[in-house]
């Protein structure tokens, strides 16, 4: 295992070494409400910067009354908060979309590009208040000190939040993850945590915060992480179009057993996660042993957390033979998930929240 991955668990599955991308085996994901740091999925577009905390400075500027330069010691003097929050990459479950039609050039994520942690740090709004927000500012843009390369151009990852979200109490500049200092690959010394939003808005190795009247023009806000209709392809895309992704949508996954599993016929224990996204809660999870014709309720585990997924389990009767098991969730807005993958297919392979199906064979 390379140096970059050295803080990760032996079971961590590496999808790409440079940049480092990977996640835990699905059964491990469904084993604990909060994901241990050494199993938490990693999504990088470039290098993992090594930042000296003594020389680290955070710059706050743009449409503010008082531009600020803050050292980590300055941040320690500000009020702190913690939030149990799930991060999910918009590309989670892309492999199911790629099986319908190609999603060229994108990482073939399974259902492991999601994890949960208790984050602690300074609410972003404390810093915005200290700087004073000018009228006309409607977006808060972030840049980072990593080195991303696209078509020969080098730049840092970036993105933005609408001002109203940036001022919400759950949005943190986090310096700890599950009680430990942020690991290098998760953004040490400081990252944004924007609960309810796609993972891309939780900018790691935070360097600058800029208040402005437009969303960030960074590649990862203005170009990537946009949702296009199913009839748009890499050939006919107009990058001005598409929807800049923000809030997550409702999803659920069977983590155990794995697709392709051979099981003993009879009652089978299914385990997995369900995540509502936005401010919504998971209200109900249902599983099916016949591809989605009949459904039965799963048991929701633990307590609801506004910004985190809900783990679930269900015992379902599987007769001998080949079957498609499926899961779907319902959220606190009474919404459920789309049934078919082809309804949500898009050429960038984002936001797959169709019913999750696995193929199993049960033997007597
Ligand atoms: N921040 C920087 N600086 N560089 C990145 O490549 N990836 C983003 C986000 N923040 C990224 C970043 C994406 S797309 C996701 S899904 C999350 O980080 C993943 O966070 P994690 O690696 O801590 O799981
Ligand atoms: Mo992502």
UniProtKB/TrEMBL annotation:
Gene Ontology biological process terms, A to Z: sulfur compound metabolic process
Cofactor(s) in the UniProt record: Mo-molybdopterin
Keywords: Heme, Iron, Metal-binding, Molybdenum, Oxidoreductase
Keyword Iron: yes
GO MF annotation list: heme binding; molybdenum ion binding; molybdopterin cofactor binding; sulfite oxidase activity
Pfam families named in the record: Mo-co_dimer, Oxidored_molyb
SUPFAM superfamilies hit by this protein: E set domains, Oxidoreductase molybdopterin-binding domain
Keyword Metal-binding carried by entry: yes
Stored Gene3D superfamilies: 2.60.40.650, Oxidoreductase, molybdopterin-binding domain
Domain Oxidoreductase molybdopterin-binding, residue spans: 45-220
The organism's place on the tree of life at top rank: Bacteria
Chain ranges of the Moybdenum cofactor oxidoreductase dimerisation domain: 249-361
PANTHER family, per the entry: SULFITE OXIDASE, MITOCHONDRIAL, SULFITE REDUCTASE
Annotated protein name in UniProt: Sulfite oxidase
Species in which this protein is naturally found: Kouleothrix aurantiaca
């Amino acid at each position: 295992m390379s140096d970059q991955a050295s803080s990760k668990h032996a079971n961590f599955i590496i999808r790409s070494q440079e940049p480092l991308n990977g996640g835990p085996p699905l059964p491990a994901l469904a084993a604990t409400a909060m994901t241990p740091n050494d199993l938490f999925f990693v999504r990088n577009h470039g290098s993992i910067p090594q930042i000296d905390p003594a020389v680290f400075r955070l710059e706050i500027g743009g449409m503010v009354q008082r531009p600020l330069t803050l050292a980590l010691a300055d941040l320690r003097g500000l009020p702190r908060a913690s939030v149990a929050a799930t991060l999910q990459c918009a590309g989670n479950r892309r492999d199911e979309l790629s099986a319908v039609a190609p999603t060229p050039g994108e990482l073939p994520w399974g259902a492991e590009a999601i994890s949960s942690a208790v984050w602690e740090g300074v609410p972003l709004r404390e810093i915005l208040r200290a700087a004073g927000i000018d009228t006309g500012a409607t977006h808060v843009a972030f840049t980072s000190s990593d080195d991303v390369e696209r078509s020969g151009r080098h730049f840092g990852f970036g993105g933005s939040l609408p001002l109203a979200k940036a001022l919400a109490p759950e949005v943190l500049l986090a310096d700890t993850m599950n009680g430990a200092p942020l690991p290098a690959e998760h953004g040490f010394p400081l990252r944004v945590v924007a609960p309810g939003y796609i993972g891309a808005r939780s900018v790691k190795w935070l360097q600058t915060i800029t208040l402005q009247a437009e969303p960030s023009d960074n590649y990862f806000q203005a170009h990537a992480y946009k949702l296009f209709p199913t009839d748009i392809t890499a050939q006919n895309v107009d990058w001005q179009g598409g929807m800049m992704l923000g809030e997550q949508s409702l999803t659920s996954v069977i983590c155990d057993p794995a697709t392709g599993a051979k099981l003993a016929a009879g009652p089978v224990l299914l385990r997995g996660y369900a995540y509502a996204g936005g401010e919504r809660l998971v209200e109900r999870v249902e599983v099916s042993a016949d591809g989605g014709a009949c459904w039965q309720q799963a048991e929701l585990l633990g307590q609801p957390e506004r910004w985190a997924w809900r783990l679930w389990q269900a015992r379902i009767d599987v007769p001998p033979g080949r079957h498609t098991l499926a899961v779907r969730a319902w959220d606190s807005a009474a919404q459920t998930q789309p049934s078919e993958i082809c309804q949500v297919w898009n050429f960038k392979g984002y936001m797959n929240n169709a019913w999750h199906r696995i193929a199993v064979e049960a033997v007597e």
